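Table S7 (text form). Paired inputs.
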Amino acid sequence: MPGLDGGLKGLDAYSVVLSSYSAVYNTKDGLTEQVDVVSGGNNVVTGSDQVVTQDFRITTKIQVTKGTELLRYSTVLGTGKYLVNAVGTGCTFTVTNGLVVVHSVTEEKAEIKLEINCEGLATYEQVFTVVRVIDGVDGTDVEWIFKRSQTEEDKPSRPATSENTDDYVPKGWTDDPVGPDIDNPFEWSCKREKKNGVWGAFSDVYLWSKWGKDGKETESVYAQTKILATPSYTWSDVDNYVPSGWTSEPQGVTSEYIYEWIMQRKKVNGSWSHWSAPAIFAKWSKDGTDGTDGTDGLDGWSIFRWYKISVSCPSTPTSAPPSGWSVDPPTGEGIVWATECHGRINEGGSITYKNDFITPVQVTGQKGDDGSRGPFMTFRRKYDSTKQYTGSNTHVDAVYTEDSSGNKTYWVAKPTAGIFSRLNKVPGTSSAYWEAFQGQFESIATGLALIEEANIAGWWFSDLVIESQNRNCIILMVMLMIIHA
């Protein structure tokens, strides 16, 4: 859409940054600190006691702008707003008004992956990393080293030597994270521990932080012509380049310049593509002369339908309206049949029938027996080989797999699968444990939708939990299912 693409360039581009991208958490310091409450430059006291509060030590602030306009954090998408989806590993956290607050760290390296949706038009990813260190526990010290690379394939090897001296840094490494940038988008890390006064070998190298790339930018240009002839153009790799004879905004068509053309190009990884082939954007329309009135046409024939209940197919009527038939479908038990013929309604309201009846067709059948109750389904999100899944006549699990392009395929456990896990039971078309859904749930017209998270009327639904928007009420779906059973 040219109007949309044009609005996401230049001064209208989105920018998503974090106030910090990593933090080191020392267990001896804790995750909170006590601070005095101050009002108007004075400490707040009650009686003779200073009033204090607790602040969290590890936080980062999400800042989103569109050009010079600061977007607002929201749980519902809209103009001037951004929405955040976040997934953490090795920690617990909350996101409130764009502030990410870490409440606990359970692993040596924790990550919070943030997906920021800007006005529903563009999505950016950022990662906040927390490293947990234990200082002086059981006589063990820990030292970290860091190194950057231009590509992920250039991951550095684990240092072969570890001298038994404090603050030893191998050549090419640093003792503090430098942070990734556009030239060195990958930063790696490894550690070593000191036990009983002796420094051990360095650990395996793992990815510490990764530089996030901007999304594609788009530029559009426009040109007018008097005749249907493609306008000429030139190209340059500079931003906001407009070829001679073209404009950066559409000018509209006129009675003289009856054609307006458009070209587009996209910027990927800092370089502009070539212009697309010129295409007609708008065309001037001229009023034609009125045509002559046509002759009156003949009255058309309508289709008239009648219904009847019968155990077997009734004989075809020969004259309308047929005896024993009704114009509305009858109610009650039995098989309903229908027949029809053509007729014409005259000016006086009477009907002339052609009596060209069709052989009666069956509309409904006999009432069948109730079917067996199907199994209850639980949506378990993305398939994880470390998890246990169930397929039985009373309960089946549903998952999805994702290819390298982000395309999802949904699967449901077969009722004969039983309780299972492990890598050799990955969903697939030849799996004895899984079968593919009919359709990929791009539409909910069937009344069935698999939704990972939803915000409905101020309630947030996610991971078997219903939570109010202001976080003062939480309902566990597991409790509701137990009560229902």
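Next pair, protein 2 of 2.
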Amino acid sequence: MIKRTTWVFLGIFALLILALVYWQRSGQSEVSEPTPTAALPLLSLDVNALREVRIENDAGSIWRYQRNEQGAWASLDPLAPVEATVGITPTINALTELRVLNTLTEEPPDEVMGLKQPAFTITLTTANGRQEVIQIGAVTPTGRGYYVRVNDSAVSVVSKYQVDDILTLAIATPTPEQPLQTETAPPASSP
């Protein structure tokens, strides 16, 4: 038969276990599931209001596109090949659809973010003359975004992949200062 002291110790042990369970559960507050928020747009600009897009890189090359009365985009560079404007409409649409991943509350110096001399400056002009100037700086330390400033506002981070897709047009299209690269045959060696 079990002695009385054993029952007392078992009772105390059971009370300690119940107290421990209660303490653990009461210490946890109700944690609600975080709901993802939609990323804010970088620009508050309607793509149909755009009339001109100017892209300039840090080397000084400039690409300009303008919308005609029919709504079609065309290069303002007379030397640009026709195929240079084929993909510009989706590219310009993508510009107006850029989303902010993060807005910096404490900004590092412009030199660190690559915004003292931006890699690219994109100027969007609307039909009424309003301009939005987007400065694209350096890649963030994570490698997934670019530092971006619009019209001297706070610095934001946008997707590197979206920006790279948009800038592919500017990098691939020749300018008068940067003609298309053509392969040349190596000089024949004389025996």
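The radius of gyration is 30 Å.
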